[in-house]
Amino acid sequence: MDAAEGTNATDATKRQRRGNTRQRIQDVALELFAEQGYEKTSLREIAERLGVTKAALYYHFKTKEDILVSLFRDLQRPIDELIEWANAQPRTLDTKREILLRYSEALTDAAPLFRFMQENQGTVRELSVGETFKERMLRMIDTIKEPDAALPDQVRCISALFTMHAGMFILRDIEGDPEDKRKAVLEVAIDLVTQAHGGSRSS
């Protein structure tokens, strides 16, 4: 390995280490936000649970809001990619089912953040990320709802997405395998969109 290759490998290792630290900060912050609330959690407490100094934490995030914004951006990235993909596809029922399938997987990956949003709705509304996320949801609805759909079919499409959101919280208290519960919620959401697709041009 020559010097240039060695330098590139070192840089890649440093980036990976920074990425891992950033992820650990996000995970621990989200744990604390969920346990004691966003407002009651300090950067010092996050640093202490991580076992790092506040200076080390500042290297990645200057404020709690910076951490929260980064979490939302990480969530929004796969949603943005899904919306972009959906807009390039034919507006068929198969496409809409695939949208819901991919969205279900994205929600599963972001379950801790959605729990935080549910339990800290006031905080989310006050931050800019709340409005940004609302815009994403409206764009998601547009990918499965026909613009000329009858009102009941529009409601079905909106309900399909919110069924997936609600299922993440309500089903926590129901016994069963998490994957089976995810599939059950997805099945209901697909049923709603299927009904709406069939009647999208009804009077």
Separate helix tally: 10
Q: What is the CA-CA span between the terminal residues? A: 70 Å
* Shape designation: elongated
Query: By helix and strand content, what is the structural category?
Result: mainly alpha
Radius of gyration: 20 Å
Q: Estimate what percentage of residues fall within beta strands.
A: under 5%
Q: Work out the number of β strands.
A: 0
Ranges with pLDDT <50 over ≥5 residues?
A: 3-18
Instruction: Tell me about the largest β-sheet.
Output: none
Percent range of helical residues: over 70%
Order of helices and strands: HHHHHHHHHH
The overall average pLDDT, rounded, is 83
Helix-strand layout with pairing:
Blueprint: H1 3-36, H2 43-50, H3 54-60, H4 64-87, H5 93-109, H6 111-119, H7 121-126, H8 128-144, H9 151-170, H10 178-198
Helix pairs in contact: 1-2, 1-4, 1-6, 4-5, 4-8, 5-9, 5-10, 9-10
